[in-house]
Amino acid sequence: MRDGYPAYVTSVGWIGYDDATIERLCGEAMTEGWSAVKMKVGQGIDDDVRRARLLRNLLGPEKRLMMDANQRWDVGEAIASIGRLAPFDPYWMEEPTSPDDVLGHKAIAHAVAPVRLATGEHAHNRVMFKQFFQAGAIGFCQLDACRLAGVNEVLAVLLMAAKFGVPVCPHAGGVGLCEYVQHISAFDHIAVSGSLDDRMVEYAGHLHEHFVDPVEVRGGRYVVPMMPGYSVEMKPESIAEYAFPDGSVWR
User: How far is CA 8 from the centre of its chain?
Assistant: First the structure.
């Protein structure tokens, strides 16, 4: 309640941003109190290395820099590419290969240690997570509140992650996902893990204006929500405007 829940911001390092945009967004993020940011990689390793060097120089050695490959590599390519990027101290490497390839993640994780892998936004049930945990294939669990089939499935993954000692850092950024997962992480801290070690919630600063109870971030941390529910009730005017095919934006 006093400090909020730790978060990181994804909006500074999208592929396609020129260096000036990265420098501006990274500077703004640090001014706002962010101490952890994420960049996208996987379009070309030489460009990835150049952009990683730029961001690490901007952030300094203390702040966390996560990297997300969005499944672009096969196993061998992932091992080679992470080796090139490891000198920039990635806090984790996210989705280095197909999100269904448990043994591929295991092979990558063993080859690139101590760099840790993160995945889970495309894992669709607790059995997938069970296999990742049992194989020692991931270092961070990035469950998705909407990919999994409701609260009970989410709770099963939280409990297994606690059993295997894998921190949960939920995937967010889509429409309403930040609103959803703030509750999951708060519950994990209060009722399951009891720890904030290595735990963060993803944040992307867009589309929150369409929700009745939008997330609030202060100093790089989620402010604990006070309204009951999942915080994903949309404003009636937003629904009317965007509902397909009769909403005004489709005309």
Answer: 8
Q: What are residue 218's DSSP bridge partners?
A: 221
* Contact predicate 12/22, CB 8 Å: yes
In 46-185, the DSSP E strands lie at 64-68, 90-94, 117-119, 140-141
205 three-class SS: coil
Give catalytic status of residue 206 as yes or no. no
Torsion region of 165: left, alpha or beta (phi above 0 gives left; psi -120 to 50 gives alpha): left
Residues 40, 63, 105, 208: which is the catalytic one? 40
- Per the annotation, the verdict on 171 as an active-site residue is yes
Reported as a single tens digit per residue, the pLDDT across 133-171 is 999 999 999 999 999 999 999 999 999 999 999 999 999
pTM (global) more than 0.85: yes
Encoding tokens for residue 198? 């290595």
pLDDT per residue over 40-68, tens digit each? 999 999 999 999 999 999 999 999 999 99
| Both tokens assigned to 239 | 């629904």
Give CA–CA dist 76/203, Å, rounded.
31
Choosing from 38, 105, 171, 183, the catalytic residue is 171
Angle CA 114–64–55, to nearest 5: 105
